[in-house]
Design brief:
single chain; 26-stranded antiparallel barrel; 43 strands
């Protein structure tokens, strides 16, 4: 709200002072030689600031402006100031405004009997009423703060309150002698954040009171004491941004009645640009006991993975290095036999125009280390070093047939320890050949709808020479539309497909004139022999695989559904999964269903049949509800359920939530938690944004 001398040396003929301000008024007169009087529809503009008033008198001898209202001042940053009368210096840096109202960021209103301006930085308000709620006549707003005095520091963007009452619908709720709050234009400020009331079966009723500490433009710390009759907890979050990356650390430490020892967890992650296209990433996860994360609602992970990785992706090569440490939280697993330490390094390069095609060369090494020295699966350590190359070429015949040829060779050296069922070390070599024939058929309907039908046949052969290593990295293979035509359907390096096989598929794609899109994929795999590499629930075991049927549909209005199923010749299901989502202005919905047949090799003695639903519905501009569930249909038992409601208007935001976790184990009990948080919009800690205004009833 600063501008230079508005009327000084203002010429009545031109009504314009160069380098100062522009004045527009119905009448301007010089009185007594040292007073300039402007009246009638006054508008003053300077440096993005606009002032309007009914009458302005500038007395050059006292260097004061006497302004009669209604007065309206809008500064370049959007701050609004209104008053009935004002006596100010020409720069509006010092003076008094009576019957004034200050509006910050178009949302927070401060009405005062008087405002004193000082040093061009401070506005001191007396007998103040503060609110961001819609004021309807004489009716008290939903909430307001009344104070004997409020000082607004424009430079620090802080509000300092003295002798303060907080009122709800005009009724005093509590009193504070002193209080400091950030004004709504401040993005980051040290101070208290929105408290949260939390109630759980295990920890009882507790209060979380977060405190935010701004450590600079690039660092901050949030400390959250959490206290109930069952626990005393301190939560922390630290964030820092660097020129080349950023880090975030989340942690907590607790003393509670559930475990007779201190409990804690630490999650940290970060990414950095190392230069020359290299990216460094790290992720640290640690917890004191297996139930802590679930008891406090920090995470639902049942395995922790701490890792460090370096990756470089360029047009012609790929470099990857990563080391991961696993910690299990499951009752039926031990860290010593996971394996807990897994590391790998690889370099891949692609060369073009090699015999009309492309040559991909790759070298890689990995290791899986277990703490246990027991013989067999529980203590086995495996290290591998390998090299491989693959040549591919694509061409299109005159008839439109798309042909793809592949030829490759890979060789791996294995060192195996603590497992007498395998040799200590050895070499395995795997050559492979593959041909893919695809004949696209396209059509366009009169209304613009496009169809594409792609029958495809893939022929492949490979064999393995040398040792047969243990399978550490490909234990969960399954048939899907992505690997139906692949030369290998294993995700890792340890297991390989051998023999001659043929896969055929049929894919239909439809692009509707109205923006709808759908695909449908159908196919299966045949082999010359069963090498026993796949388990029953993969859909790939035996000489002939299960049938694959997969499809997807999307629409412009946010509707999406996709599914996949595997079934045998008798139409008995092996796997089935469906996902559904709908996202628009009033609903955000995601649902999924999965079914899996029993398979002892995947530690699944019983069938899996599970349904999940998560949705948020905007009932009207102010109210929204969300609900979620995860239900075990096979055992007819729920796994989790959540329900929440949120009310938002221009001055308040209320969150209500309830969550029930039904799962249990030897370390985790079922529990229900409740949450309540209320934030006052208009301050930096709770912006109103585009929230709807409460209507004033007549």
């Amino acid at each position: 709200m600063r501008f230079l001398l508005v009327l000084f040396l203002l010429l009545p003929v031109t009504l314009h002072a160069q380098g100062a301000a522009t004045l527009v008024a119905d009448d301007v007169a010089i009185v007594g030689g040292d007073q300039l009087v402007a009246s009638g529809n006054i508008e003053v503009f300077y440096d993005g600031t606009r002032l309007s008033a009914a009458r302005i008198v500038f007395d050059q001898s006292t260097d004061r402006l006497a302004i009669s209202g209604p007065i309206f001042i809008q500064s370049a940053d959007g701050t609004l100031l209104t008053a009935d009368q004002a006596s100010l210096d020409p720069k509006l840096e010092n003076g008094i405004l009576q019957g004034a109202r200050l509006v910050l960021d178009q949302q927070l209103q401060l009405a005062a009997n008087q405002i004193d301006r000082a040093e061009g930085r401070y506005s001191q308000l007396y007998k103040v009423a503060v609110t961001s709620c819609q004021v309807c006549g004489t009716r008290a707003p939903l909430w307001q703060i009344r104070a004997e005095k409020v000082v607004h520091d424009e430079e620090a963007r802080q509000l300092y309150f003295t002798n303060t009452q907080f009122l709800i619908r005009g009724t005093p709720v509590f009193w504070l002698p002193q209080m400091r709050l950030p004004d709504p234009t401040l993005d980051r400020a040290t101070g208290l954040l929105i408290p949260q009331l939390r109630n759980t079966d295990q920890l009882g009723v507790g209060l979380k009171l977060p405190y935010f500490i701004a450590l600079g433009d690039s660092r901050d710390l949030r400390l959250t004491p959490y206290v109930s009759r069952e626990t005393t907890t301190l939560e922390a979050r630290y964030r820092q941004a660097f020129l080349t990356g950023d880090i975030e650390i989340r942690a907590a430490i607790s003393n509670d009645t559930l475990v007779q020892a201190p409990r804690s967890y630490l999650f940290a992650e970060g990414t950095f640009d190392l230069g020359h296209d290299y990216q460094l990433g790290f992720d640290i996860e640690a917890v004191s006991d297996s139930a802590y994360l679930l008891d406090y609602g920090y995470s639902e992970k049942d395995r922790l993975d701490s890792s460090v990785s370096v990756i470089r992706v360029r047009d012609y090569d790929l470099t990857q290095i990563d080391l991961t440490y696993y910690q299990t939280l499951r009752d039926d697993e031990e860290n010593a036999s996971l394996p807990p330490i897994v590391g790998n390094i690889s370099y891949e390069r692609r060369l073009t125009d090699i015999a009309g095609g492309a040559l991909t060369l790759k070298t890689s090494a990995d290791t899986a280390y277990r703490y246990s020295t027991d013989d067999g699966d529980a203590g086995r350590d495996v290290s591998r070093f390998g090299v491989q190359g693959e040549w591919t070429r694509d061409w299109i015949t005159a008839s439109g047939l798309v042909v793809k040829a592949q030829a490759g060779l890979r060789s791996d050296f294995y060192n195996i320890e603590n497992d007498t069922s395998y040799g200590q070390n050895g070499v395995r070599t795997v050559p492979h050949l593959a041909f893919t024939l695809r004949y696209p058929l396209a059509a366009r309907a009169a209304n613009g709808t496009q169809h594409l039908l792609e029958p495809t046949i893939a022929l492949a052969w490979s064999d393995s020479f040398g040792i047969t290593p243990p399978n550490e990295d490909s234990t969960r293979a399954e048939l899907d539309q992505a690997n139906l035509l692949a030369t290998s359907r294993f995700s890792g390096d340890d297991a390989v497909e051998t023999g001659t096989r043929m896969a055929f598929g049929l894919r239909w794609t439809r692009l509707g004139a109205g923006g709808n899109a759908s695909t449908l994929t159908f196919g299966r795999v045949h082999r010359d022999r069963d090498d026993g590499a796949f388990n029953a629930s993969s859909g790939l075991d035996g000489v002939t695989s299960d049938w694959l049927l997969a499809g997807q549909f999307t629409s412009p209005d946010g509707f999406r559904i996709d599914g996949r199923t595997l079934f045998d010749d008798d139409a008995d299901l092996t796997r089935a999964a469906t996902r559904f989502s709908w996202d628009n202005d009033w609903i955000d919905l995601a649902a999924a269903y999965i079914w899996q047949a029993p398979d002892a090799t995947e530690s699944r003695p019983d069938e899996v049949s599970e349904f999940t639903l998560d949705t948020n519905i905007q009932l009207n501009p102010s109210w929204s509800v969300n609900l979620g569930t995860r239900y075990d249909l096979a055992n007819d038992t729920p796994a989790r359920a959540t329900l929440g409601a949120q009310y938002t208007n221009e001055c308040v935001k209320v969150d209500l939530s309830i969550a029930r976790r039904y799962t249990s184990s030897t370390t985790v009990d079922p529990s229900t938690s409740y949450g309540v948080s209320v934030s006052l919009n208009g301050f930096s800690a709770g912006r109103s944004g585009a929230a709807p205004k409460a209507a004033c009833s007549q």
